[in-house]
Every structure is written in structure tokens, then in C-alpha cells.
Amino acid sequence: MHRRIARLLSIAPTFLVLGAITEATHAQPAPAAGSVPTPASAEPTMRAAVRRLADKHGVWASLGVGRGAASLDCAACATSTTRAYSIEGTLGIRLSPRFLVGAETFGWLDVMGGEADRIAKGTYLVARGYRSAKSKLFVQAGAGIASFEVNDGEVKFRTRSPSLALTSGYDWRIDQITITPAITAVGSTGGRLESDRTGNSIADDARLGLLRATISLSWFR
Fold this sequence. Notes:
Structural class: alpha+beta
Strand content: over 45%
Shape: elongated
CATH topology: Porin
Low-confidence stretches: 14-18, 20-25
Number of domains: 1
Number of helices: 2
CATH class: Mainly Beta
Order of helices and strands: HHEEEEEEEEEE
CATH architecture: Beta Barrel
């Protein structure tokens, strides 16, 4: 009997040590004094920051169709105005909720029926501004190069010169789609009107005038 008691007393320290190690393994460490508690998750905060950044900066794109009237005015030109359909595309970035910049290209095509095909094209650097961050009405100005071409099947006349464009429009948002009706006026400075047959200059004061109404699908990110 005394031998059994002595044996139990001899192995008791071993059980005590094992129990202490087990408790230390499963116990949660206490925070150090003066340390800042770590939040459970930083994901909501990061998501909000990304959303705020996307609201201020991002990509802007649009594609639209419309109809407009164009004319070419010079000393040797007929001044009649022709109506036809047009297409335009814009791609840019949002510098702020109120201010956007980008590049725009358009084509005005009078190529169906008639005695001659007439084509106007232009590419601009544009800047768009809204009155406030919540405003949907905007004004856009652009500067670039525009050309006007007349082709009757035998000879082609063309002029190319610096041009300005002024647009007024409205962003009408429906769910995830933004529909943008707009009116644009385009005017060019006097350029050379040349014949592809002779290469000679017919006039040095050819000016393009174009007024078009368009409706576009716009995308903002």
C-alpha cells in the first residue's frame, strides 16, 4: 500500500506539467498593455474607400447616332445644306464628378441617293463640365481637325482644317444605362479645297458648318 502511494506521488509532477502545457496551448494570448486592438475585418473600410475613389475618378465612354445638317461654304462652293445621319464615339476619364476630359470622333454620311456622296469627319479633344456633382445637364467643348469630302464618282473634292465643337446634353440614367441626348454645333476655319484629280487648290476659304442632334448610350465607371 505504501509502495503504491509512493509511486503515485512520484509521477504526479509529470501530469501537472502536461496539464500546464495543454492549458497554455489552448489559451488565447492576452493583448499587450497599450496595444491597439485589431479590427475584426478591414474589408468594409477598404470597400468604402474604393467606392469613393470610383465616384471621383474613372472611365467614361459613349456611342451615339443621330441626324444633322452640313454645308461647305467658300467662294467656289455651293452653299446648299444637306441632311444626313451621323455616328459618334467618345472615350475619356473623369477627373472629378463635375469635370471630364477625353477624345471624340464623328462621321456624318450623306451617301444614299443624290448625285454625289458627301462625308464629314472630325476628331477632337473634348472637355465636359456639369454645374454640380448631382447635375445631369452638361456643356462640352472640343477642338481638333475636321474634313469635308464631296465625291461625284469622277472627281473628289476635299478640305481639311482646324475645327471647334460645342455640345449641350443631358444624362438620363435608367438602371445601369445612361441615355444621353445632345445637340452639337461644329465649325471649321477656312481651309484649302482641293481636287484629287489635279491636286490644285480650288479655294482657300472652305469652311465646314454642321449641326447635329444625337442620342447616345453612355457608360461611367
